[in-house]
Amino acid sequence: MEAKTPSSNFIKNIVTEDLASGKVREVVTRFPPEPNGYLHIGHAKSICLNFELADEFKGRTNLRFDDTNPVKEDTEYVESIKEDVKWLGFEWDGLFFASDYFGEMYERALVLIRKGLAFVDDQTADQIRETRGTLTAPGQESPYRNRSVEENLALFQAMREGKFADGERVLRAKIDMASPNVNLRDPILYRVVHAHHHNTGDEWCIYPMYAFAHPLEDAIEGVTHSICTLEFEDQRPFYDWVVRECEMKWVPHQYEFARLNLTNTVMSKRKLKQLVDEKAVDGWDDPRMPTISGLRRKGYTPEAIRAFCREIGVAKSYGIVDERMLEHFIREDLKLKALRTMAVLQPLKVVITNYPEGQTEWLEAENNSENPEMGNREIPFSRVIYIERDDFMDNPPPKYFRLFPGNEVRLKHAYFIKCEEAIQDADGNVIELRCTYDPETKSGSGFTGRKVKGTIHWVDASHAVPAQFRLYEPLIADNSDEEGESFLDRLNPNSLEVLEGFVEPGMKDSSGGDKFQFFRHGYFNVDPKDSAPGHPVFNRIVSLKSSFEV
Ligand code: ATP
Ligand code: MG
């Protein structure tokens, strides 16, 4: 799956041309997250795109934290982002912070002021917004727009020295209030924010706006192809204006692609943070979260995520990807790798009345029926076993081939057993089955005497390891996207189901991140946080089958 040649896309074509024409000598890309939350699967698409593009052309990729908004940013996020990028399998060339360049950005703002291309505005943010005009009507020029260069220099310095409170002054570009592109109507370059910054501490009380900072960062780092999502398309003229008017030596270019959207999935850090803050989930790495850390904890592998990102490709127009496609890739990745074992999620005790008391035999079981190289293991079998509660029915409907009184089934890797009697408690619940087994029918013995229609899984009771199983459904019940404010009201109350059951003894000491295919149940991952010695917790990654094929 990994070996698949990366398919072509429009950005790759641009890079190929730029190298051929000599416009660039080396490809330099960057992944520029804002450290205000954990990365999600949408970011994975951007990470794969940037790193794989540079890799393919033997170029470089920087990891750059776009930390220009001190109020929302935190080192916890910085660390998690680094971990996630590494885990996905990528190595950055340079590790940078936008805040490393605050000094240079300030100097570049001075260049603009001296050229008469920036001015300090006394208007409030609301006033500035209200006078911006609309798509059809031009905006109004600020009454402070024609201040002298000297006055602007002095005021900007005063902003920097902390002489103004938050919101009292801003530095604005002086471009064109009548521009059809609203982003060119004297956009704000700097604002006053008296806040502690995770990297620069209290050194600054003015911070550059993202749209001003980003092109400067790219130019400073010598980025050749600055790839971002489509929302920034209308920002491109301002991006180019900043690079040009700030007289940056290196001229980077911005290219836009469509962001990833997945069905049934909230994909915005702001909303994911809300889920965490309101404790609707167990942190950023809750396996129900579409975060990289959540997917990792659920049991996704970097290989599966990379293959998924490659498959969805890079488009110029919006679409919504079926989440089953992501599931397809983890099944593909684990199919031949995961040990295939048995787990009983909702146990029902079965006594095999004709099996000798006190005897245990060890049966041969293949580890992966599709990959013989994984060899065999031995599993115990004795008089008392557990089967799945819903593999028995007292009054089964037609075509029910599992256990019911008088019926015979095959126990995977073991024998045929026949249900003789169901024992009920005072309330009429079945609490135990009495069965008999036929020693002639041992798995692998070549028995052909008769056939049974059902094969069920089981775990030997005296050797069984108690385990917890966590089954997931989408966090958001319906299939609507993230429009509308009430997404917290649409949470699926059944997104997590917790069951206590048993696994085979060989899985007793499995450690966090180990992955298994449980016969008939799907793929599971050992939860790295909540598993205890002798009591593993298994997160279901995905069930066995899907109707979806790519
Ligand atoms: P969110 O809206 O989820 O908070 P963001 O765009 O604000 O995401 P950033 O930290 O600014 O998050 O994003 C870092 C990079 O990841 C940007 O280049 C951005 O374009 C890209 N990115 C973010 N979300 C997606 C997505 N859903 N699909 C593809 N790329 C994305
Ligand atoms: Mg952002």
Describe the protein's architecture and organization.
- Its EC number is 6.1.1.18.
- With 550 residues, the chain is an alpha/beta fold.
- It has three domains: 10-262, Rossmann fold (3-Layer(aba) Sandwich); 269-334 and 468-542, Ribosomal Protein L25, Chain P (Beta Barrel), CATH 2.40.240.10; 346-461, Beta Barrel (Ribosomal Protein L25, Chain P).
- 24% of the residues lie in helices and 23% in strands.
- A seven-stranded mixed beta sheet has the order 10-23-24-25-21-22-11.
- A hairpin with a 5-residue loop joins β17 (416-424) and β18 (430-438).
- The model has no long low-confidence stretch (mean pLDDT 95).
- Bound molecules: adenosine-5'-triphosphate (ATP) and magnesium ion.
- Adenosine-5'-triphosphate binds at residues 32-34, 42-43, 45-46, 228-229, 259-260, 267-270.
What's the number of extended β-strand segments? 25
Write out the strand line-up for the largest beta sheet, numbering strands in chain order.
10-23-24-25-21-22-11
* Structure classification: alpha/beta
| Radius of gyration over C-alpha positions, nearest whole angstrom | 31 Å
Please tell me the overall pLDDT: 95
CATH architectural category of the largest domain:
3-Layer(aba) Sandwich
Q: What's the number of helices?
A: 12
CATH class of the largest domain: Alpha Beta
Question: CATH H-level name of the largest domain... which superfamily?
Answer: HUPs
Biggest sheet details: 7 strands, mixed
Distance between the termini: 13 Å
User: Beta-strand level of the residues, as a percent range?
Assistant: 15-25%
Ligands bound, unique: adenosine-5'-triphosphate, magnesium ion
Catalytic activity: tRNA(Gln) + L-glutamine + ATP = L-glutaminyl-tRNA(Gln) + AMP + diphosphate
Motif ('HIGH' region): 33-43
Family: Belongs to the class-I aminoacyl-tRNA synthetase family.
Binding site for ATP: 34-36, 40-46, 229, 259-260, 267-269
